[in-house]
Amino acid sequence: MSTIRNKVQLIGNVGNAPEVRNLDSGKKVASFSIATNEFFKNSKGEKVQNTQWHNIVAWGKTAEIVEQYVGKGKEIAIEGKLTSRSYETNEGEKRFVTEVVAHEILLLGYASKANESDS
């Protein structure tokens, strides 16, 4: 049972080009967001789309894969764990962030024709 604790699996489309940084320690980190869509019918029988945005962080080899192959609009599958952290802004405000730390990324689809020309 310990293998299914805090496990997140998402399939969605990348919102913007991933931001990849090389840290002083030599580690690489990539951050980006993906959109997942859920469709349902409301009480009037109309089809409704609900889009959720998820912040994703990838480290090391996974970040290298993101840097090379993941771009805006691409459909990907993510497996990882949910994490929460807080930080303080320059103005002294405390902010909270929830992210998925990706352990595995699977490239599923291609960007739309409009996005392919950006590559």
Structural notes for this entry:
By secondary structure, the chain is mostly beta strands. It has one domain: Beta Barrel (OB fold (Dihydrolipoamide Acetyltransferase, E2P)). The longest helix has 10 residues.
Q: What fraction strand?
A: over 45%
**What structural category characterises the helix and strand content?**
mainly beta
Architecture per CATH nomenclature, i.e. the level-2 architecture: Beta Barrel
CATH class term: Mainly Beta
Q: Portion of residues in helices?
A: 10-25%
> What is the count of structural domains?
1
Return the string of H and E elements.
EEEEHEEH
Low-pLDDT stretches are 112-119
3D shape: globular
Main pleated sheet: 5 strands, mixed, barrel
Distance between the termini: 42 Å
CATH superfamily: Nucleic acid-binding proteins
- Radius of gyration, taken over Cα atoms and rounded to an integer in Å: 16 Å
Q: Which helices and strands appear, and what pairs or packs with what?
A:
Elements: E1 8-14, E2 19-22, E3 28-41, E4 47-59, H1 60-69, E5 75-88, E6 94-107, H2 113-116
Parallel strand pairs: 4-6
Antiparallel strand pairs: 1-3, 1-5, 2-3, 3-4, 5-6
Overview features:
2 helices, 6 strands, mainly beta, disordered C terminus, 119 residues, OB fold (Dihydrolipoamide Acetyltransferase, E2P), 55% strand
Outline:
Helix content is 12%, strand content 55%. The protein is mainly beta and 119 residues long.
